[in-house]
Amino acid sequence: MKVLVTGGLGFIGSHTVVELQNEGFEVVIIDNLSNATEDVLKGIAAITGKTPLFEKLDLREKAAVHDFFKKHNDVTGVIHFAASKAVGESVEQPLLYYENNINSLIYLLQELQQKPEASFIFSSSCTVYGQAEKMPITEDAPVQTAMSPYGNTKQIGEEIITDTAKVTNIRAILLRYFNPVGAHSSNEIGELPLGVPQNLVPFITQTGMGLRKELSVFGDDYPTPDGTAVRDYIHVVDLAKAHVIALKRLFDKKNLQKVETFNLGTGTGSSVLEVINSFEKVSDKKLPYKIMPRREGDITEAYANTDKANNVLGWKAQLSLDEAMASAWKWEQKVRS
Ligand code: UD1
After folding, report:
1. Whole-angstrom Cα distance, residue 51 to residue 72?
2. How far apart are CA 214 and CA 292, in angstroms?
3. Which residues are catalytic?
């Protein structure tokens, strides 16, 4: 079966391509290389022994998307990662985010709706819950007004897919990720953030390498056990495996609704200080950090109720925070060597 993975050279995309190829799927990647390089193909090939097909293409180009589906008319399964994902940048450049994240989705669905059947996996985020009232967060927790254009594109994306699935032959699964971290155990692929990382784990590993002077811990006055904010850090390899399971579920028509939603997290919340401790343990290094004011727009805590993912999807995170931090650290050292 040929599967299209958009954004397949990115962080989560590349790990998912590996898992798909390991399961025998033929993969074609679309990526516009805005936040990735073709070198990632070599990493994927080193792990799986196979180089996936690759088309450099920008999904905002409707005609190019149409031509792609004409050429690869045997694609009936799509995992859609390609999107812009920096929260701060989305506030500065809202139209870039709406154009990139929404238009690309529409053009893909316009092609898929012409097929007798199609399976679509969407990269969504726990950001749709905002600060949820109850922890851990279940899939039926209310979606709250988005705090950034980025977050809004995930909510709108979910709605576009849901409305379209109702009246077409498209079946879809919306995967709401918590905080993806870590790297492949082979050390052939990992996260490659451009510029100064905004996310906690790449900032920590870069600080460990001496590229950043110190980590700013954003807030120690949250109503949490140690005062720092709590998140659910999920190993990217676990996350990648969930995509393959979700796609097979749709291919096998095991889905119970036209559109299903699953939280992808470990179910355990970790504070910023706990993440720092984990890093210090696995790297045997002291991490320089200072306590700073809260970051605007940050929530206090978010961790997943994983019952639905465990029992309905049949997926469970296997890897620990320490394993994620150790792999992220190993990867950072390789990238800088
Ligand atoms: C962020 C995005 C979220 C997106 C996710 C993708 C915001 C407000 N949210 O989530 O929409 O889906 O990334 O991965 O940007 N922290 C520090 N110092 C740092 C960096 C982070 O203390 O230098 C803290 C943050 O305050 C937070 C935790 O670490 O409590 C995790 O931060 P981050 O990795 O940026 O993820 P989120 O903010 O949860």
Report:
1. 17
2. 11
3. 150
- Ligand 1: residues with CB < 6 A are 87, 125, 127, 151, 179, 198-200, 203, 215-218, 229, 231, 272, 295, 297-298
Taking a C-beta distance cutoff of 8 angstroms, is the pair 303, 225 a contact? Answer: no
Q: Which domain holds residue 215?
A: 200-231+267-336
Q: What is the pLDDT of residues 89-130, one digit of tens each?
A: 999 999 999 999 999 999 999 999 999 999 999 999 999 999
Q: Is 280 helix (H, G, I), strand (E, B) or coil?
A: helix
Minimum CA distance residue for ligand 1 atom 34: 199
Tens digits of per-residue pLDDT, 188-202? 999 999 899 999 999
Q: Is 201 in contact with 233 (CB distance < 8 Å)?
A: yes
Residue 308 inside a domain? The answer is yes
How many whole angstroms from 67 Cα to the centroid of ligand 1? 38
Instruction: State in Å: Cα 183 to ligand 1 middle.
Output: 18
Residue 186 lies in a domain: no
CA of 179 to the centre of ligand 1 (A): 8
Task: Say if residue 242 is in the same domain as residue 221.
Answer: no
275 Cα nearest atom in ligand 1? 29
Q: What is the mean pLDDT of residues 27-46?
A: 97
Helix (H, G, I), strand (E, B) or coil at 223: coil
Instruction: Say if 153 falls within a structural domain.
Output: yes
Same-domain check for residues 35 and 164: yes
Pair 72, 119 in one domain: yes
CA of 304 to the centre of ligand 1 (A): 16
Does pTM surpass 0.90?
A: yes
- Cβ proximity of 226 and 271 under 8 Å: yes
**What is the reported pLDDT for 1?**
84
**69 and 169 inside one domain:** yes
pLDDT tens per residue, range 168-180? 999 999 999 999 9
Average pLDDT across the chain, whole number: 98
CB 329 within 8 A of CB 190: no
